[in-house]
Design goal:
Elements (H helix, E strand, L loop, with lengths): L26 H16 L2 H42 L4 H26 L5 H17 L1 H16 L7 E4 L2 E8 L3 E5 L5 E5 H6 L2 E3 L5 E3 L2 E5 L5 H14 L10 E7 L4 E6 L1 E3 L3 H19 L17 H13 L1
Antiparallel strand pairs: 1-2, 1-5, 2-3, 3-4, 6-10, 7-9, 8-9
Length: 323
Amino acid sequence: MDLRNLNFFAQADSPFAPLIKADTPDKTDGILGEAAQWIADNVSTEWFLGVLRAHGLNLLSAVVVFVVGRWIAKIVTATIVRGAKRARVDATLVGFLNNLIYMLLLTAVCISSLQRLGVETNSLTAVLAAAGFAVGMALQGSLGNLAAGVMLVFFKPFRVGDTVEVAGNKGTVVEIQIFNTILLTLDNVRIIVPNGKITDGTIQNYSAERERRIDIVVGCGYNDDIRAVKQKMQEILEAEPRVLNLPAPLVAVSELGDSSVNFVVRPWVLSGDYWNVRFSLMEQIKLAFDENGFTIPFPSRDLFLHTPDSAAQTTVLRSSRAA
């Protein structure tokens, strides 16, 4: 059927009749009337079949590429998200990756579909690349923290609940976010550290290993019996139930200092018992020293006065009194 034979556009009761009147004073109605007249004059079954023969295959392939590509994008995104959940990745990061990966894949699918239609996409790709570069430069610091956050989540140098020292800050990890990591110090101060600073520096994880060694330095006087001092500190370690037998604790003379004989006391404990055992041992060692008469010397100096003869000494004293 030829659409040019349809004259309902010009019928008086047709809603399109005012649009095709040449003497209408409304410019908008005149434009719409010209468009309707062009459709009536040019669009026909033969025209439609010609367009379909010329571009139907490309249109069909573009639709297939879009539908199949979107389906593949959903599958790939879902697979990555499932893998991230199995790896116990933070839920906030999983949602962010889900949206980001799907949008990137869908953009690639749309560009491929437009290429099948014969649309020149080089300029579009260049515009997207330029826009991505501009956004990347504007968010350089934030993107660096984002990348660092992804590394922290996947490589897991520490977990929530670990006691760590990062970027000069020490505390317990409360939350690992996309851009920041939140620490809680021993005195209950909340610290927010950018992830980029964490990965750029040294990470000390005090909770990563099951056992930790306590290092204590204790000094006694040179007049004390160092065998008795050593024996007493070994007894203190043996009496402490939280001190591990393996590795064996160590008590040894480490240094002959200026004012004291220094011992190192090195017991091994569970990481969770570190501070409690350290505080307890310090107290017990001090009490044992007091009970057994051992001294903990402080830095001191002996001053020796040499006088050649008593006359010179008398002269010095007299001059001192005169002054």
